[in-house]
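Lab channel / #folding
Pinned by the channel admin:
"Please post every new chain as: sequence first, then the structure tokens as a reply. Keep commentary short and put observations after the output so the thread stays searchable."

First post following the new format, from NK:
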Amino acid sequence: MNDYLAAVMVSGGVGDSLREHSPTISESLAVRDALQKAYGRALPSDEAIALLVSAAPIVEVGAGLGYWASLILAAGGDILATDDYSWHKDSGGPYDFARRHGTVLRMDAAVAAAMYPDRILLMIWPPYNDPMAVNALRAYAGRRVAYVGEGDGGCTGDENFHRLLADEWRAVEHIALPQWWGAHDALYIYERRAA
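Reply from TO:
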């Protein structure tokens, strides 16, 4: 069961198509902040989880509290979730680490990406203007990447990450996601371009 999406839909913090009532902006921001600290930034849908299960096995880098990984596992997928938690000290916390949604191994993103080229590399909302995502992508020798976030110029990854995706990878699947008001993220599956 997707408790996160259920809580968001009741709160009214998502785009108009999912809204049950219209909270004030400050109410929406307070709900968003609390739920993101408990679950993560991106809102998973059943369709997105099913696509990732079909793409498994997966190595997820930057998994945070492991909510998406828990849904993938519950749906029968094979996923190894990792995070180095370097973001926590600058995040304005407090994140409830006792409330992890499953096992998340402490590991650098580039190390994890390099260690598991036989798994699809999954990155969900990699940190904005931070080299974590591009470093993981450069270290990864596999052929498929799943990315949840905004496009170039958005609030995920950095310019180098988006340039590398555009130059060396091609999008083969795209799924729209439920979104927080003002967010423009989606799930993309990429395959490595031929050399």
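NK: The beta strands are 58-61, 79-83, 105-106, 120-124, 144-149, 169-176, 186-192.
TO: also worth noting, The first strand starts at residue 58 and ends at 61.
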